[in-house]
Amino acid sequence: MRHYDRVSDTHVHDHAQVLFGIDGGLHVEVEGHSTWVDQSCGLVVPAGATHAYGTPRTARVLVLEDLTGPATERVRRFALPQGWRRAGLDIDSLVDTLLGAPTLRARRRIDLDALAARVDADLARPWTVAELAAACCLSPQRLRARFAEALGQSPQAFVLTRRLNRAEALLRRGFSLEAVAAQVGYGRASALSAALRRERGSGARDLRRRRASGAS
Predict the structure, then answer these.
(1) Using CA atoms, how far apart are residues 55 and 25, in angstroms rounded to an integer?
(2) What is the pTM for the complete model shown?
(3) How far is CA 174 from the centre of its chain?
(4) CA 180 to CA 157: how far, in whole Å?
């Protein structure tokens, strides 16, 4: 597992590298062509290919080296199937994932970290799929498809997760349910309470009780 948090100089290896995205996004330039790795995809960098990388934030990437065979002889960005890490991170499982993964066409990358920051900065806003798509320079239909591929959830579920994460954090700090509901985009406190029970299995009272227990 490697952590990338800077821009590298152009370099070359005498062996192939296969990158599996774990967290964050890593921009990679291979033989003058720009591509990327994130939690939805991996990348093959063949032996002898000049490359460089950079990231505006820390990215975690699993890197396999010294693999040989047809699957590592050309630059290829490939899709990582949902739940691929549950199959194991041993070399045999990762090679099976590589061999079975479809090649991805070149296309615009969604910066999920930037989108999350934009949503988090205005959680009271009634975000629509059209607005989220515009922020990513995609059509709503393409955004839905890309979210399903990268996260296994819809754009609406993505926003809901951000809202409830913030709500839980504020409630644990002692904010009232009414104040939190207004901050995270719920018109009524009862609606937020119902969403917490439905999605997280606990209500505002449970979160406050945990806070009180932790402080005692």
Answers:
(1) 7
(2) 0.56
(3) 30
(4) 19
Question: Looking at the 3D structure of the chain, how many domains does it have?
Answer: 2
Distance CA 163, CA 195 (A): 10
Q: Which of 37, 66, 100 is the last residue of a domain?
A: 100
> What is the side-by-side order of every strand in the sheet holding 41-45?
2-4, 59-65, 17-23, 41-45, 76-79
For residue 10, what is the domain's CATH number? 2.60.120.10
Question: What is the Cα–Cα distance from 68 to 153, expressed in whole angstroms?
Answer: 35
Kindly give the confidence (pLDDT) of every residue in the chain, 216 residues in length, as a single tens digit, with 9 standing for 90 and above. Answer: 788 777 778 889 999 999 988 887 888 889 888 888 888 888 999 999 999 988 877 888 989 888 888 888 888 888 887 777 776 677 777 887 777 788 877 666 677 888 999 999 999 999 999 999 998 888 898 888 878 776 778 999 999 999 999 999 999 888 999 999 999 999 899 999 999 999 888 766 666 666 555 544
Strand pairing class (2-4; 33-37): unpaired
Instruction: Please check whether residue 21 is in contact with residue 41, taking contact to mean a CB–CB distance below 8 angstroms.
Output: yes
Note down the domain range covering 11: 2-100
